Amino acid sequence: MGKLLVSNLGYPRIGFDRQWKKCLESFWQGSLDQEQFFKDMKDLRIANLQKQKDLGVDWIPVNDFTFYDHVLDMAAMFNVVPKRYQNLSTAPVSLTTYFAMARGTQENVACEMTKWFNTNYHYIVPEYEQGVELTLTHNKPLEAFLEAKQQLGINGKPVIIGPLSFAKFSKGNYGTLSKYVHKLLPLYIQTLQELSAAGCDWVQMDEPFLVVNITNEDMELLKHVYQEFKTAVPKLKIILQTYFDSLENYEQIIQLPVAGIGLDFVHGYKENLKSLETFKFPEDKILGLGLINGRNIWRCDLMEKYKLIQKIFQFVPAERIWIQPSCSLLTTPVSATGEKKLAPFLRNSIAYSDEKLVELKHLADACNKGLDSVTEFFNEAAAALKDLEDERLKIKINFSLENLKSIGIERSESFESRFEKQRASLKLPLLPTTTIGSFPQTTQVRSARNKFKRGALSSEEYEKFIKEQIEKWVRIQEEIGIDVLVHGEFERNDMVEYFGEKLVGFAFTSNGWVQSYGSRCVKPPIIYGDVSFKEPMTVKETVYCQSLTSKPVKGILTGPVTILNWSFVRDDVPRNEVSYQIALALRDEVLALEAAGINLVQVDEPAVREGLPLKKIDWSDYLDWAVKSFRLATCKVKPETQIHTHMCYCEFQDIIQSILDLDADVISIETSRSHGEMISAFEKFKYSKGIGLGVYDIHSPRIPSKEEMSDVLTRGLKVVDTKLFWVNPDCGLKTRTEDQTIAALKNMVEAAKEVRERLIK
Ligand code: GLN
Ligand code: ZN
């Protein structure tokens, strides 16, 4: 029997110590010059490759590395650059242009940013503009391929986003998808020809959209495109890679003229296996078997995976199988070796990127050399998972979906009658202004928190510091004239971690960083067992804030679905159960805030949309439990208590009805970064509860002008009832500087005043 190989689909770019983030930020701040920036990035890139080589990966991905985002790289490579950036430099797409597209400049707004399927990674949306000529500005996959070859002797496998998916990621007036793809086609072909001429054997063409839904036209286009590739570059082997769910149109897609097909056998396990059993697998292709969960951190049950491979052998022989992670390891931390503080039972039961590659290597050995060769490793893993199970029993709560039914999820009164009561008690002006919760996390704030964590600051000192920050920002908000104040979230390192630390069932890593967007990384908590409430989590700071001002203060919590979606979740129970458990715990917190005299509580759910399953048939089930979870957490308050929610950076159009079903009194929603798309959505759908359409993008350092924001308000007011309308930024302000925040908020309040006056007249 031939040998089964190990392949990887993408490696985290951030580095073990988040060198990537530091390098980028120093470059942006000007403390690193371009030459040094290139050098440091190259060192990291090479180190990442070397590591995979050392771990025994047979097919190592190249071109997965980027200076910001791999979708943006493709846009820059094909000159899908909006005109507004084109005078920034004379070079085709300079670094200045590249980062301007990603982050915006004082003169120009950034390109839209949105979530990568149902993950918390954000990509930059390619923005096609008529009249911009598409060309191959540089061949990045080729550069990556040559670098790996020259520096390390690695015969890398360039990763490229396939034309159908790239087109579907793009926005703009490009006409039909087919027309656009035909414009891109020669550029793809040139890229591939140059790769082939340089001696490249395999290219991984990612077509993640093939798991979402495919129309007949898509299918025809796909056939055409891959036939063109075959004709133009006959020697180059393409593996058509899919992930995050099962392949649609399996029967037809396996007939495409490509040399391999990669399937996710974790997230699309059942359906992909069924397709394989029903339609078999062509004899001229490699099967990329996505075996190990690339999106979670649990060590896997190796015996179960081994048996799965054996089962697959009925359809595909070993020499035509590559075992690989289910998707790129982009959404998994780098290496678990840094986790010295985790309890041993957890430390032993997790696997980050490197450990996942080790698992794959052992599975390959088990198949190639026999099970005996891996006994020790298999036994050790099984014992670790058994320990985890024992620990879970210790925190088990009395919870079942059955007893949930007896707990109501309805507010005591309808929105209309709540609305009147809240209006009477809160006495807010027309178009009330507010912010989303966080204020700048300055170096000073971060350093105080770190000192406190290290023990260098006593809890009294730290508390005093937090109080000072709250007070400072209460005064700033009052000064600016904001109507509903927030305390600023200074005590929170991260909106999920903060709550996880105070609930039962969570654990925290020291180094479990994953990239969220640009240089921003997050460290998702681990939910390893049942979740329950221990003690109030936000009452102290919120109540202190309220004690300083006569303006109403809004308490801010992170919602159940967001906590779930932004954590590494146990995989031994269904996700909805975990979500309900979190909701029940938050319900106690909401009621504690209300009891302490807080009249507005915002439960943030920015991650609701991203958790939406990729296939439409799975939507209603998910939305049903997501909505129930939110309502479970919030419905018990008095009619006078105003429940807010907040969402951002997603395609919300599809789920507006469910957003309304949350029954929140007010939602604040990102609008500006997506260039007003939300406003158009409300032309079609009448939103009948309180709503604040974000009036400016908070990710960009540029200060929006008053005029710009009153434009957004004016447009918004055409589609939303005036008395339901709120004014707020797109999202929290933690990533901005204090000066930027104050300047922007001043303009925002001015804009609101101006429009308000106009309305009253
Ligand atoms: N309340 C959070 C903040 O203001 C919300 C952040 C988010 O939506 N991601 O930072
Ligand atoms: Zn947000």
UniProtKB/TrEMBL annotation:
Coiled coil: none annotated. It comes from the Eukaryota. L-homocysteine binds at residues 436-438, 604. L-methionine binds at residues 436-438, 489, 604. 5-methyltetrahydropteroyltri-L-glutamate binds at residues 21, 120, 520-521, 566. One of its GO terms (biological process) is methionine biosynthetic process. Its cofactor is Zn(2+). The active site is at 699 (proton donor). The lineage of its organism: Eukaryota, Metazoa, Ecdysozoa, Arthropoda, Chelicerata. This is 5-methyltetrahydropteroyltriglutamate--homocysteine S-methyltransferase. Binds 2 Zn(2+) ions per subunit. Pathway: Amino-acid biosynthesis; L-methionine biosynthesis via de novo pathway; L-methionine from L-homocysteine (MetE route): step 1/1. It holds the Pfam family Meth_synt_1. The keyword Transferase applies. PANTHER family: 5-METHYLTETRAHYDROPTEROYLTRIGLUTAMATE--HOMOCYSTEINE METHYLTRANSFERASE. Zn(2+) binds at residues 646, 648, 661, 670, 731. The gene is 107365926.
